[in-house]
Structure formats: structure tokens, C-alpha cells
Amino acid sequence: MRPRETRAEAAARSLWEERRREVRLPMLFETVTPGGLKIVIARRGPLPLASIHLVLRAGSSSDPRGKAGLAEFVAELLRRGTRRRSADEINEAVEFYGAALSCGADEDTLSVRVSTPSEHLGTMLRIVSELVREPSFPPKEVAAARERLVAQLANDLDDPALLADRALLRALWGDHPYGHDVAGTARDAASFVRRDAVDFHRARFGPRVGQLIIVGLIEPWQARVWAERAFARWSGGPRSPPEIPTAKNPALPGPLLVDKPEQTQSQVRMGGPGFPKGHPDLFAATVMNTALGGGFTSRLMQEIRVNRGLSYGASSNFERLMAGGAFTVSSFTKTESTRKLIDVAVSVIRKMRREGPTAEEVEAAETYVAGLFPMRFETNEAVAAAIAEIRVYGLGDRWVQRFVPGIKAVTRPMAAAAAKKYLFDRPPTMVVVGNAAAVRKQLGGLGRLRVIQAAELG
């Protein structure tokens, strides 16, 4: 308390200072085009820059069977030509106006993002509209993109960390739409033809499954005029996004060993069920996981790296998607210490599940997470991405304001309950990538061992 300040005054001052530091989104202005595209505009300075984020519910979970990676492939092709411009003309226009353009997909969405000087926002909106409404998918560009993708996916087979992530993904999700990489497989990619891209665009693109976010130093009314003008003629397409079935992580009988004979290290992954975006367990699980494996001072790092020198890194994470989620653990070690690493990680996780984090760990985790959160909103691009996430996943516009108070409200019993709920109440799905001849015996007693070759993940 300050001199001569009453308790009520101190409490009021504390509340005022906390609210002054509160992370908030800018004021949002909204409209909808005649075709059904939702537009959200936010004025944000001080630099004369703007960010465009067009997001569609057309992610890799909507890839047709036998065409894993098609959503990402189509996203890559959007900037390779429209009915009005060639790929070179698109690139030249973007560069001429000092903008930056990217297209991509994740599990749930496909997006087009542009950063531009504010004065050229109208022009960039017209270009984005062309990309999503009128892609031409030139045959030569399709063939070149397919060749690049197949080569990239073949190269991925030489990266043991990527192999481990891919193998865990498949083991965790099985035949679910989340059970393949966003980039797909070389086998499927080799089959991509122009008709696949055209059919995907016709089936998955449309204003009623889209959100257009504009953030920057702009007049909202002017941005609205430009956006409505650019997308006024966009109509048709799907009436609603594809249904993604609720995820049910399959229980596997034992570890999966991916043979890479030349490896002198083992990549180790473990996983189990988690929760989807917007789940109420987020706050408690985030605090608990920060103490377990979400930072450099976490228990997994301390026990695996600091105390035993088994690895340079160990981490745990909750992946959250539209229809489900997963809890995963990741590390690596020398071939001869593979089982030791597994045993230490399992022991640390079991102890956390049994006892939960300490009061000191909860306090430190809350301070760490709350302190990092404002840094997520330092650019127009980050704010636009946050607004898109909030709208796509139905988190509510007060989500950003609720996050830090939600983290700070977590108690030790709440974090302990999250540990009991999510930290492997059954043996985890386990993947090891390494020299099978040297690792096989170390995995005894962990369940029925399955061994595959790295090429089988291609």
C-alpha cells in the first residue's frame, strides 16, 4: 500500500493496473457479403501496415481418401496462376506493392495471408479474391509442384525426427482424418493431377465456409468497401464445412520401432488422448504441462537433460484441433540409452500423474505462461491469426481477455486433476526411430513390439 492509501483504494488501484495491462483485441467491425463471406476488420497502429488473413474450413482433414496432402497441395497452387494472371504476374504484383503473400493448410483450415502497406490494401484484397475464386491450376505448374512435393517427402524419410512425428501421428489417430501429415505422403502425392485440384477447389472453397480478417492502420469503413467490392461476386460452394468425426485415439498393444540402421541415436515419442480447441480443461492442463515438459526448467528437462545427461531436449505438449486432441512427449538420445530415456520419462510422468505439480511449480508456470501471452499479439499478422482462430473454433471474442485470468485462476488441485485425467491412464502409444538391431532388446516388457522400415512411412 502507498502512504495514506486505504485498503479499498489499494484494491481499486491494483484492479485498475491489472486491467490496464490486460491483453485485448482491437475493436472489431463486422459485415457479411451477399455470398456469405464473414468479414472482420480491426484498426491497429501505429505503423501504416495491414494484414489480410482469409481462412477456409478446408484443411487436410478434408483430404479425399487416397489423396493425403491434397489441401496443402491446392494451397500451394493458388499463387501459381489465376484466370487473369500467371504465377510470375502474381509475384510481380505482390513485390511491386511491397507486400508478402503466403498460402498453406493445417489440419482444420486452408489460409491465404498477405502483409501489405495500408495504402495498397484494396489492391491486395483483389489479388486474394482472384486466388481463391479463380485459380487456373495450369498443368505445367501442377506437374512442377507435384515433382517438388514428391522430392520433399522423399527427403523427409532421411530425417529421423520427422519420421518419429509422422509415425506417432499415424499411431495415435489411425484411420481418422487427422491420421496423416498435412503434407501427405510421396505415394499419394505422386498421383496428384490437375483434376484433383479442380475438384477439391469446387467442393471445398466457398464464401460460406470462409472468414476474412483485416487488421492494420486502416479506416474500417474503407476496408469494408474494398473487401465487399473484391468479394461481392463470390458465391456458391459448400453450405457448411465438412463434418470431422470425433477423434478416438486407438489403444495400441505395444511400441512401434521404425528401423533406421544407420542411426546412432533414437528418436522417442509417446502419446495419448488429449482434448479439442476450446475445452474447459485448457487452463489447468496448460499450467500442469508447463511444469511437466513445457519449458527449460520443466521436470522432463531437469531429469532427462540436467540430472542424467540423456538428451539435449525433452518436452511435452497438448495438440488441440477441431474434433479432438493429443498429449505427446518428445525426446531423443544415444542408441544405447534408449530404454533409460523411456524409463525416466515414464517415471516423471507417472509421478506427475500421481501427485500433480507442487504449489511452487503452479505459481512459476502461471507467471511464465501469463508473461509470454502478450507477446503473441505484437504484430498485425499475429492479431489477425488470433481473430481467425477465435472465429473458426468458436472461442468467443473475449477469449484473449479471458486467457491470462484463466491461467492465474488455476489452483494446485485443478492442475493435479488435469494430470490424472490426461497423463497416460493406460500405457501410452510409443514410437522409437533408430537402429532396430541395437534397440529391439531394450524395448522388452513394453508390450508387443512391431518393427517397420522407414520407407513404409513414405
Task: Name its key features.
458 residues, alpha+beta, Cytochrome Bc1 Complex, Chain A, domain 1, six-stranded mixed sheet, 17 helices, 12 strands
Mean pLDDT: 94
CATH H-level superfamily of the largest domain: Metalloenzyme, LuxS/M16 peptidase-like
> Helix fraction?
40-55%
Q: Kindly estimate the percentage of residues that lie in beta strands according to DSSP.
A: 15-25%
Strand order of the largest sheet: 1-2-6-3-5-4
Question: Can you tell me the CATH class of the largest domain?
Answer: Alpha Beta
**What is the H/E order?**
HEEEHHEEHHHHHEHEEHHEEHHHHHEHE
CATH architecture of the largest domain: 2-Layer Sandwich
Unreliably modeled segments: none
User: Any idea of the CATH topology of the largest domain?
Assistant: Cytochrome Bc1 Complex, Chain A, domain 1
Measured between the Cα atoms of the first and last residue, the distance is: 64 Å
Can you count the beta strands? 12
Any idea what the radius of gyration is?
24 Å
Regarding quaternary structure, what we see is: single chain
Q: What is the global morphology? A: globular
Instruction: Work out the helix count.
Output: 17
Task: Give a structural overview.
With 458 residues, this protein is of the alpha+beta class. It has 2 domains: 28-231, Metalloenzyme, LuxS/M16 peptidase-like (Cytochrome Bc1 Complex, Chain A, domain 1); 256-457, Metalloenzyme, LuxS/M16 peptidase-like (Cytochrome Bc1 Complex, Chain A, domain 1), CATH 3.30.830.10. The protein is 42% helix and 17% strand. It has 17 helices and 12 strands. It has helices at 7-20, 70-77, 87-96, 121-133, 139-156, 160-173, 186-189, 194-204, 220-231, 282-293, 299-306, 338-355, 359-372, 380-392, 399-408, 412-422, 436-439; strands at residues 28-32, 38-43, 49-56, 100-105, 110-117, 210-216, 256-259, 265-273, 314-320, 325-334, 429-434, 450-453. Strands 1-2-6-3-5-4 form a 6-stranded mixed beta sheet, with helices on both faces. A 6-stranded mixed beta sheet has the order 9-10-8-11-7-12, with helices on both faces. The longest helix is centred in the first third of the chain and has 18 residues, at 139-156. The radius of gyration is 24 Å and the shape is globular. The model has no long low-confidence stretch (mean pLDDT 94).
